[in-house]
Amino acid sequence: MPNTLQTSLKNKASSTTEKGLGRVSEILDAARHILASEGYAGLSMRKVASEVGISLSNVQHYFQSKDVLMEAVLLMTMNQFQEKLDNITSKMEQQPRVDQLNSAISMFLEELSNPVTYGMFFEIWALAARNDFASKLMDKMIARERKAIFKLIQGLNPAISDEEYKLRATLIVAQVEGLMLFRYHRQTQKAEMLEVHAALKKSVISLASIA
Questions:
Q1: Could you give the CA distance from residue 112 to residue 203 in angstroms, rounded to a whole number?
Q2: pLDDT tens-digit profile of 59-81?
Q3: At a CB cut-off of 8 Å and minimum separation 6, what does 34 contact?
Q4: Which DSSP string corresponds to 8-23?
């Protein structure tokens, strides 16, 4: 986790101690929950400080503005995704890459099923349509997801070029992210979602391996 937290502090000039990283983790966790439950409008540096039980100036020591804080929350979340993805590929190194891809997609679906992760991403999605800063954050998130998927599927079928695989990575990301549009509809049945997940995985494997 230290590396994940350190990279989320890319806008902070000075280094941060281990104790400071613990405080950063608390701040980011509080901000993440507020963003997910109350949206961008409800997120404030003062509210985060209150949730953590510290002063406003203490929050501002690590994050100079609300936008810097929101960017750090997204960066931390994406870094955690990458760590889990790296762990999958490391543990499954000797297994077929199709199985690695299947496990990776399962991980993404599980993470996006988390109400806090879902709420945070959905808020940034909605905000991106009218806020340039949020739009840039969304672009960064999608770019990282595309890169991660591309690395998983590249070369699975020698008949498929890298350029084609980049395009297919975009389609895979769109399918996975698109499930968030109805994932938490109150009338959606669990059995139905499991069927959708299975169909998605089948589609992903086809995109990754069929020329």
A1: 18
A2: 999 999 999 999 999 989 889 88
A3: 42, 43, 47, 48, 51
A4: HTTT-SS---HHHHHH
pLDDT at 1 over 70: no
**Predicted local confidence at residue 107, as pLDDT:** 92
Distance of alpha carbon 137 from the chain centroid: 11
Q: What is the pLDDT of residue 205?
A: 94
* pTM reported for the whole predicted model: 0.80
Contact 175, 204 (CB under 8 A): yes
Distance, in Å, from the CA atom of 122 to the CA atom of 177, rounded to the nearest integer, reads: 10
- Where helices occur in 9-131 by DSSP H, the ranges are 18-42, 45-52, 56-62, 66-91, 97-113, 115-128
- Amino acid type, 84: K
Burial of 102 per CB tally in 10 Å (0-12, 13-18, 19+):
buried
Report whether 185 contacts 117 (CB < 8 A).
no
Query: Which of 138, 167, 126, 98 is CA-nearest to residue 39?
Result: 126
Return the residue matching tokens 């936008």. Answer: 67
Could you give the C-alpha distances from 127 to 121, 133, 134, 153, 210, in angstroms and in order? 10, 9, 6, 31, 36
Q: Are 112 and 118 in contact (CB under 8 A)?
A: yes
Sequence-ordered list of residues with C-beta below 8 angstroms from that of 106, at least 6 positions apart, any chain: 197, 201
Give the pLDDT band of residue 100 (cuts 50, 70, 90).
very high
User: Exposed, middle or buried, 118 (CB in 10 Å: 0-12/13-18/19+)?
Assistant: middle
Both tokens assigned to 124: 């940034």
